[in-house]
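Mods, move this if it's the wrong board.
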Amino acid sequence: MNILDTMGTALQALAANKLRSSLTMLGIVIGVGAVIALMAVGQGAQKDITGRIRGLGTNLLFIRPIQVKMGGGLQSEALTLVDTDADAINDPDRFPYVEGVAAQTITFQASLNYSGTSVIAPGLGVSPQYAYVREFYLSSGSFITDADLVRRGLVMVLGSRTKELLFGDTDPVGKTVRLAVGPSELGLNFIFRVIGVMEPRGASGNGDEDDQFYLPLPTMQARIPFLRNPQGLSNISQITVRIKDRKYFNQAKEEIGQLLIDRHGQEDFVIRSQQDLVSTVSDVSQTLTILLGSIAGISLVVGGIGIMNIMLVSVTERTREIGIRKAVGARRRDIMTQFLIEALTVTLLGGAVGVILGMGAAELANGRTVGDRTVSTLVTPFSVMVAFGVSAVVGLFFGIYPAFSASRLNPIEALRHE
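Not the wrong board. Structure tokens:
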């Protein structure tokens, strides 16, 4: 009996019990579909976060204060970096590989009011090179200049969404906005003139920049309550350094780090590159994806157990058939092959249906908003191959014992079976 005859016999046996075969297949369908859908969520999250980090700009180093422990197990950034640190790094003679340096303060919440319309938005004090370093460009107007820093000008640049919420279709450049910070009883109200609007950018490692507004760094430090270090200097939360080429990353880390140690007397800062952040995010996301896939894989194992149970029942029901086949010359290998093919057929068909359902579920979930988050999914050929391959292995593994039991039946005893 050749393999094609064996396959035909196996398929006929499955077709004779369509309902049972379909129910047996259901566990594999659910398992494969769940594996693909959940892995798509994990891989989509990885791609989304990695894209946000890369969207900050290219060839960047991020310098931040170290984390210090506070009461109750909480951590906070130390007050170590100051704006003069950024000025010291922006030295083309000492650091010829540095293309630009941008300092920024911590983000603060403020109320912006224009002609009766109010918007709560996060603000950021930045230096003039912020837009160039971050490759974040204007759609209209101009960005903060060195002159704005010197005179601590009451000027602001709006993110695209903040502009839409506050001004609608009106061109805001040249218009004045009332900015209020903190409780109303503090009376921290200022009038700022809008000088520019940023292009739409979306979420990044610095939050959703379309929702923000930007002030000159000294203006924010002078007008708005801000943390200061023990020497009375105004602190900044991050220095972003744009490097000419990634090949200088290690050299830049070492030399800029030594400069800051010389200035501070200790290593009270952390320097990270974009690649460091991407690698960290990728490692975490891959672990999450594997975890999600493993959890979904449990349903494949359950489906495999169901296949084994059904195949054992099938062996019992077809004992007499097995005896007849052996009596007319079927070998143990033929019987075992037939039952293995039945198990593999169920799992492979179920795997194919599961792949389609899983990809469909991932596509339906892609772009959906859950709470304040937008779900991003990504189905890769690798995840499809893994899910489909595992379903085949499950069918083979859980089909071996029933097939072996069927092949071991004594033909005389099998013929006597009622």
